[in-house]
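The passage that follows is intended for readers who have already worked through the single-chain material. We present the inputs for a multi-component assembly, then the predicted structure in tokenized form, and finally a short commentary. You are encouraged to pause after the input and sketch how you expect the pieces to fit together before reading on.
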Amino acid sequence: MPLTKEQKQELEAKMREFVGKPIGAPDVGRDAVNEPMIRQWCDAMGDTNPAYLDPDAAASTVHGGLVAPPTMMQAWTMHGFDMAKGYDEPQDGQQHLHKLLGDHGYTGVVGTDTKQGYTRYLRPGDVVCAETVIESISEEKATHLGLGYFITTRTTFRDQDGEEVGWMTFRVLKYVPAERPAAAATDSGDGAAPAPPGRIRPPRGHDNAWWWDLVDQGTFPIQQCNGCKALHHPPRPMCNACRSMDMGWVEASGAGTLYSFTIIRHPQFPGYDFPVIAALVELEEGTRIVSSVIDCKPEDVKIGMKLSGFIHEDHDGFKLPMFRPARPAA
Amino acid sequence: MSNASIKFSDVSVGDELPGLNVPLTPAVIVGGAIASRDFTPVHHDKSAAQGQGLNDVIMNILTTNGYVGRYVTDWAGPDAVVKEVSIRLGAPNMPGDTMKMSGTVVAASDGVVEVQVVGKNAWGNHVDGTVSVALKAGD
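Having made your guess, compare it with the prediction:
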């Protein structure tokens, strides 16, 4: 149930109370920076940097001795095994804020971006302490996951003398999850990686399903009015030339010319090979179709170039017409 | 990695880093989570991950940061000093996939170079970001 305007204002007022405040007492790392934990980190990351692993080699680097990998900074104050247990009650201000949003339907959470700066590298023996503040909360945003708020925290990392050793900003989206089929239901259970996602499918309705059904069989159809013989694409119920509703089709030869195009580089959502050359193609039969041009470098695309159409099949079996540059006549 | 380090004077904007393919075994994903002391269940417990609509366990952010940092220092050498790592997260890293890492030098001034890093898996970009790293001056 979406929140009323009043409920939302009330929620946002409560959220604003968290902004600019520490989430709780500083987190002090349980263990001082130490070589065994550095070695375990390097093993897991495949990192063989001698500055982290070999005291003699490290002594002759700019670091002058063993240092911890800078990206390990946050690990020193993580809570470790206890995190697996989960908590019934919020443990700090950040968890209280998340619970507040969760109780209002914003149950999803996903980390979106993080930035870390390193004032100095940590060395064995350093004790790290983390102080985290809720830095900002965005306006409500519509995202591909659902409606939500971006929450940014800022953590300052200090050493045993209270000196700053680094900082981190971390942004999460707390969102109302969109209804979607459970991804787990498609898992084969054999431990294999999930198949890469496919192209976004066109909706098939009363007026166009026949066209896609022919494409599924490997045919490249163009709708033709049985009354005045005008060609149309995309398919429609009525001829806009003669208003006939008696519609048939002819098969396209695939030969065409590039009428216009654009190159899509960003955002790179899954299921497509970027950059995508999105093309408006004039078919030799006399109508135009939006498609894409493949087997062609973006710098080689020219308006007016001759194209050759074919039915392309994706890895997941979905078929659609596509074009590639026509070969010059032999 | 070799013990030789790149010097600032050796680097030009547009230089490309050697590619790195990271096989995403369960050991890499779970091992990275444990080494970073992140025991959140979705990073080591497949059934917990499936309970959240995921197909399998997913790499945690600290491990992604670790690989991004390692990727740049593998190239820059042990004398490099990482100043900042800034990443955006996209498609999750799951067992059975491979993360293909690539990098390009996008800025170089005052002894500090900025490397744009992309880690791509079968779903798309797992991570894209920038790493600022100080290098030794040339001779």
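Commentary: Chain B has one domain: 8-134. Chain B touches chain A through 56 residues (CB under 8 Å). How closely did your sketch match?
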